[in-house]
Amino acid sequence: MTDNRRAFIKKSVAFSGYAIFATGGLLTSPEATAEWLAETTSTNILQQTLKRLFKDQKIIESDKIDIRIPKTAENGAAVPIAVTSSLNNVESIAILVEKNPIPLAAKFELSPDLEAFVSVRLKIAESSAVAVIVETNEGFFTASKKVIVTPGGCEI
Amino acid sequence: MSSIKIRTKRMDGKMQIRMLIAHPMEHGRNRDARTNALIPAHFIQELTVKHNKNVIITGNTGANISKDPYFAFTLKGGNPGDKITISWVDNLGNEDTQDHIVK
Questions:
Q1: How far B1 CA lies from chain A's nearest CA (Å)?
Q2: Which of A84, A88, A114 would best serve as a mutation to test chain B binding (most B beta carbons within 10 A)?
Q3: Contact A113, B54 (CB under 8 A)
Q4: CA A127, CA A146: separation in Å to the nearest integer?
Q5: How distant is the Cα of A12 from the closest Cα of chain B, in angstroms?
Q6: Is the pLDDT of residue A148 over 60?
Q7: Each residue of A66-116: pLDDT tens digit?
Q8: What ipTM does this complex have?
Q9: Which residues of chain B neighbour A115 with C-beta distances below 8 Å?
């Protein structure tokens, strides 16, 4: 009899445990956590950002984009970058820092009244490639340059 | 005082537009040195530049832009007396606008 009772108590405790687990599961859906994990642990965040930004558009490497950025930066908190392009009909210029937790730094939509030129200052957490994507009416073009950030750049 | 400083310079039929905006541009991963609490993200999300009444630049910016951001663009043409209007909106809903008359 005692054994039976113990078994019953064990089962009921286990069952209520499941119930709590189930309701907890409703609040934080497993899909959401899975997605979050994939997003943060993926080594290819840049590719995902590109996919989200430009859908599945073809991005072609181009030598008509000129990126002026220091090869080594002592202070990753403010790295000047200037982008010029000799491509025709530039519609937008996007700047991405490959190894930053969120790669996209900025995307500017430029009217035809503007020259294909943008200059900003970037935060770069660690040595990384900086990619520029230029959108024209003929498609997307990209170029990138590597920047070495000397230690201490993380606390920006 | 406005948070936006605007400078323009005309040369060879072009006009350089430069701006400096006072903004913390926190990306949300920094910690307060004293309390060790995370500093919430606070950065400019939208930047709009108007030439007279035409919008010439719309920018989406993220926290990868340095603190007190600086932006420069080049406009084709541009005459003395033209009006440049720059405005920004950040992720907390703050905003600011500044006009500048080209000399």
A1: 23
A2: A114
A3: yes
A4: 7
A5: 42
A6: yes
A7: 999 999 888 888 899 999 999 989 999 999 998 888 888 999 999 998 999
A8: 0.89
A9: 14, 73-76
From first to last of its 103 residues, chain B has per-residue pLDDT tens of: 688 999 999 988 899 999 999 999 988 888 888 888 888 999 999 999 999 989 999 999 988 899 999 999 999 988 899 999 999 999 999 999 999 999 8
User: CB-CB: which of B29, B51, B72 is closest to A119?
Assistant: B72
Pseudo-torsion of CA A85, A90, A94, A98, nearest 10°?
Answer: -50
Q: Using one digit for the tens of pLDDT, what is the confidence trace for A47-73?
A: 777 777 777 678 888 888 999 999 988
Q: Does B74 touch chain A (CB under 8 A)?
A: yes
CA–centroid distance for A42 within its chain: 10
Residue by residue, what is the 3-state secondary structure of chain A?
CHHHHHHHHHHHHHHHHHHHHHHHHHHCCHHHHHHHHHHHHCCCHHHHHHHHHHCCCCEEECCCEEEECCCEECCCCCEEEEEEECCCCEEEEEEEECCCCCCEEEEEEECCCEEEEEEEEECCCCCEEEEEEEEECCEEEEEEEEEEECCCHHHC
Top residue of B19, B32, B66, B90 to mutate, by most chain A CBs within 10 Å, is B66
In the block, tokens 């181009």 appear at A62
Q: How far apart are the C-alpha atoms of A97 and A83, rounded to whole Å?
A: 14
Cα dihedral A69→A71→A75→A77 (10° resolution): 40
